[in-house]
Amino acid sequence: xxxxxxxxxxxxxxxxxxxxxxxxxxxxxxxxxxxxxxxxxxxxxxxxxxxxxxxxxxxxxxxxxxxxxxxxxxxxxxxxxxxxxxxxxxxxxxxxxxxxxxxxxxxxxxxxxxxxxxxxxxxxxxxxxxxxxxxxxxxxxxxxxxxxxxxxxxxxxxxxxxxxxxxxxxxxxxxxxxxxxxxxxxxxxxxxxxxxxxxxxxxxxxxxxxxxxxxxxxxxxxxxxxxxxxxxxxxxxxxxxxxxxxxxxxxxxxxxxxxxxxxxxxxxxxxxxxxxxxxxxxxxxxxxxxxxxxxxxxxxxxxxxxxxxxxxxxx
Amino acid sequence: xxxxxxxxxxxxxxxxxxxxxxxxxxxxxxxxxxxxxxxxxxxxxxxxxxxxxxxxxxxxxxxxxxxxxxxxxxxxxxxxxxxxxxxxxxxxxxxxxxxxxxxxxxxxxxxxxxxxxxxxxxxxxxxxxxxxxxxxxxxxxxxxxxxxxxxxxxxxxxxxxxxxxxxxxxxxxxxxxxxxxxxxxxxxxxxxxxxxxxxxxxxxxxxxxxxxxxxxxxxxxxxxxxxxxxxxxxxxxxxxxxxxxxxxxxxxxxxxxxxxxxxxxxxxxxxxxxxxxxxx
Lengths: 315, 280
What we know:
The complex is a heterodimer of chains A (about 325) and B (about 280).
Chain A: H1 6-25, H2 30-49, H3 53-60, H4 68-75, E1 78-81, E2 94-101, E3 104-111, H5 117-122, H6 130-145, E4 150-156, H7 163-167, H8 170-182, E5 188-197, H9 198-202, E6 209-213, E7 217-219, H10 223-230, H11 237-244, H12 248-253, E8 259-261, H13 272-291, H14 295-307, E9 312-314
Parallel strand pairs in A: 3-4, 4-5, 5-6, 5-7, 6-8
Antiparallel strand pairs in A: 1-2, 2-3
Helix pairs in contact in A: 1-2, 4-13, 6-8, 10-11
Chain B: E1 26-28, E2 35-37, H1 38-43, H2 59-66, E3 72-75, E4 79-81, H3 93-104, E5 110-117, E6 120-127, H4 138-154, E7 158-164, H5 172-191, E8 196-204, E9 218-221, H6 232-239, H7 250-255, E10 261-262, H8 268-279
Parallel strand pairs in B: 6-7, 7-8, 8-9, 9-10
Antiparallel strand pairs in B: 1-2, 3-5, 5-6
């Protein structure tokens, strides 16, 4: 439970108690329930419409938040997971495979986090190694070969910064993905569903359309690491989050992502099915739009879009 | 009890007083302490004649080393950083920029120029570490991208000399997207079948390694250069152990298959010229 969720959850519990009391004792509490419900709804609105940037970062990491495979399994009628980079191994922090929505097959790729201690270790906290990025590229090329669109779901605290990752060329693996993704002939849709940390996120995020869920963040560094480097202390994460302007709203305003997918009040975890439905609709609508464009033109537009990112002064 | 008393506590050496390429008559090698004339050091391509330590140098020195007769046409000189995020940490970003410009006389951390190497035209982009750690913000990304596009327009090879701590945090999301932007231009250069030589010098880390620095048709490093994605401090904190000797050195990266070759700076121009001739 996050600190700003606490008052709401307490009122929710109170409401449940009240309803149960009414049933058990057969008394009419309609008025009291109504007033409490109003109070809760008001509190939710004031809390969630005025979230600070740091609070959004907290929501993006909420332990109950749906992860990549949760969404894929809800969105697809059928999904076949595909493993391995055909070179070194199978990275559990990066998942992918062909999924079906109606008669449309789509290659889904994304970082995967774990929900309990054991799973989190198994998934390496959603931090992929080089073989993860190479697996992602292999699957993207497979999609291109069979002329199927690609959807990537981004949720990572960063590419893994370990010794073996360096030995196997973490930098090269991400760099190659950036370059190759620009030239893929099939439509690519990228959606940040949780954390979008730096090169580890960007390594699967070169798309014709890039979306962010409402309560996610996407930047060059996490607020904690930024605080540690610029303020030389871990205690300035709130300020760092403000300074980095890393929320969906910020990133859209700067033209660094295309659009925002709304979340239910309280965050994606309060209604995972509803959120998945919205993502599904976004995917279907966006594919309709992208399919109207010729592949060569799509590639040029993709390059043009990213090439226009950056603020420089010419004098 | 010591026989002396430290009167001032917490003495901090400002960056501008820390080790830099010395500018006096004599040069002392920071590794083996050999002292030679500055001119002799320069004539030796800024390497130590006794231990071969490669001193960190900037774009002016690399242009001099690579371009015939040090003749070149500098491109996109008028680009300067904005402050899109109005970023403030312990300092305001525009103040940091101003301080760095005053200190270095440069506008940002990369310079791009066209000229000849052994009478063959090339475009070279070279990073300057002394400008905010050679960090990549919008200007660095834009100048490199335009440099690549210029090489494509002229139908000549592109050479990138990387020397950078990685992304520029003060430009956050914008900084990140420079990795994408430069890679996009390199994809187009590849399509045009024009050669791209990436020269990785000490240090090359972070978002620079994870984009253009690792994408060369030829990845060439200088001896002992630090090359990696995550900085050594971050890796050490992640694994909670000391790092093995030589970890993330050019020799280590070559051994693991991500470099074509390590070249002594004194032979850099010759190697570049040879490769360009062989693929021409």
